[in-house]
Amino acid sequence: MKFVLACYGSRGDVEPCVALGGELLRRGHQVCIAVPPDLVAFAAATGPEAVAFGPEVQPILDAHRTFWTYFFGNFWKIPDLIRLRREIAEPVIQRWDEIATTLTSLADGADMLITGLNFEQPAFNVAEYHDIPLATLHIFPHRANGQFLGFLPSSVGRSAMKMYEWLAWRVGKKLEDPQRRELRLPKAHRSLPRRISEHGCLEIQAYDEVCFPGLAAEWAKDNDKRRFVGALTLGMAADADDEVLSWVAAGTPPIFFGFGSIPVKSPADTIAMISAVCAQLGERALVCAAGTDFSQAPHSDHVKVVGAVNYAEAFPACRAVVHHGGVGTTAASLRAGVPTLILSTDIDQTLWGARVKMLKVGTARRFSTTTRETLVADLRTILAPQYAARAREVATRITKPAASVAAAADLVEDFARRSPR
């Protein structure tokens, strides 16, 4: 069969599709994956044919960080938030016709189209146009439910998510309506989630059910279409892996620090804070640079900075993990069975921080409000024995990476075979 996957966003957004595409390719299928231009090499590394669509993602991530940092301290300043949000959306809007055209061309002759969250709307229209089944990969509970917004009463949280779905559809109509006219499809009169549900599309939940107690029961009527498979991650080897494991083995287990694809605003200040805090606590620090350039930041003997590292190998060797709260990194820390401190930079990461606290395997706060004093206090909290014991126990209930990707591939294969054409 021919599978086309399309995903847009940071590496954390793209990796689930890449992991699934690699597994489908291994099973003998024809696979093509569309990703942002600056992630084509990453997607192609697992074997599928990779093509670029949309603008480069890194400049958008910078604007994304600025928006959410401003939002949490100035949520009442609506005009400023609208302006900052436009800076995120404008590069995509400018390339929207190209994105839709690329998806339409790639999906011609495909047996199934699989998409991530960010471009569900054009992918749904393209699947409808070609009359092929559609699967979406959700890296958190994106459909209305009473579990995700745990700080709200269940009914209020569900209503808030439904309102968001409606508003997102209304805002996106000025992009969707021209695409549907171009594809000679009737004008849409219902929100995208409703249409996806009514069409019986497959909505794979690429995270663990244990993180959202009660969600499966709430979605019982949709269980055949909203299956939980666990996080889809690659565990790719990095050039520094051997060096890192050798450094770890040469001393006490370190505390890991990583901030994902979105660069931190002040690399030098961040490294100085980590160095001072770990010196005060008598700990070593392993820092993964990822999207941040730490090359000009001061370094200390008890702090090691690397560009990238295999989380699946490094995390189990650490005392604790401090990170931004991306879904893939959160899954890796849960699988490793080590205490976690999430220092979030956006709303999704903040909500994953709430999950970590709910599971009692760690704690969380916003990165923008983190100081040396709060970091010392948070690390002392999660380094307490009860957090390590709880993290090890929860790890036994988290789906292993190989099982997650196999389950997702089984679902899309079966769905493609059973779907009428």
Give the topology string: H per helix, E per strand: EHEHEHHHEHEHHEHHEHEEHEHEHEHHH
The radius of gyration over CA amounts to 21 Å
CATH architecture grouping of the largest domain: 3-Layer(aba) Sandwich
Low-pLDDT residue intervals, each spanning 5 or more residues? none
User: Proportion of β residues?
Assistant: 5-15%
CATH superfamily of the largest domain: Glycogen Phosphorylase B
Assign the CATH topology of the largest domain.
Rossmann fold
For the biggest sheet, the summary is: 6 strands, parallel
| Number of E-state strands | 12
Mean pLDDT: 89
| Ends distance | 13 Å
Q: What's the CATH class label of the largest domain?
A: Alpha Beta
Number of helices: 17
The helix content, as a percent range, equals 40-55%
Apparent shape: globular
Structure classification: alpha/beta
Task: Provide structural commentary.
The chain is an alpha/beta fold and 421 residues long. The protein has two domains: 2-54 and 95-231 and 401-418, Glycogen Phosphorylase B (Rossmann fold), CATH 3.40.50; 241-395, Glycogen Phosphorylase B (Rossmann fold). The protein has 17 helices and twelve strands. The chain has helices at residues 11-26, 40-44, 58-74, 78-94, 96-107, 120-130, 154-182, 192-198, 215-218, 241-249, 267-281, 311-314, 327-336, 347-359, 372-382, 385-395, 401-418, and strands spanning 2-6, 30-35, 49-52, 112-115, 134-138, 202-205, 255-258, 285-288, 303-306, 320-323, 340-344, 362-366. Strands 3-2-1-4-5-6 form a six-stranded parallel β-sheet, sandwiched between helices. It has a six-stranded parallel β-sheet with strand order 9-8-7-10-11-12, sandwiched between helices. Strand 4, helix 6 (120-130) and strand 5 form a beta-alpha-beta unit. The chain is globular, with a radius of gyration of 21 Å. The two termini are 13 Å apart.
